[in-house]
Known about the structure:
By secondary structure, the protein is mostly helical. The protein has 10 helices and no strands. The longest helix is centred in the first third of the chain and has 24 residues, at 22-45.
Amino acid sequence: MADDLRTTELRDLLGRVAARDRAAREELVRRTAGNLERLTRKLMAGYPTVRRWEQTDDVVQNATVRLLRALEQVSPENLRQFFGLAAEQIRRELIDLARHHYGPHGVGANHDTRAGSPPDAAEPESAVEGLADWQAFHEAVAALPPADREIFGLLYYQDLTQAEAAQLLGLSVAAVQQRWQRARLRLHDRLKPRPGPG
């Protein structure tokens, strides 16, 4: 019942966002900020190289600003579109973060990690490779076909359960599971190393 009430409130807010109600736009983002923060913490946990340069709260704030700006341009018609838009903003923030810190002129790519570190500290190259992998992952998700990208956005970026995604999409849980499996396989194909020449 609480979930139904929350869904109804979010749908009401979406209707007000479509009517260009700025307060509703901010309230909608505020109501979903907890999901955004949990997701950001989950994603950053596997990447100490990112945490070295950015705090989770800063990443959440930047993604939230992106989402608010996007909502000024786009009015999602339903929660499905809203969650897709939110996932896209998170993905863009993560990709930009990787490029900023580990691009050719980034502080991470040009910082002497070993200075003042114990002798067994990680080499800078490993940090660059880790963030490059992270960037490649999010770019590969962005390049998936729309249906795969949508299911990935809901389950991975928005951290919805398969049952929640099924309800949002109007599908059975089994259909969501099939889509999720297909999306992961396609992502794996995009990320696997290509054989070199000769």
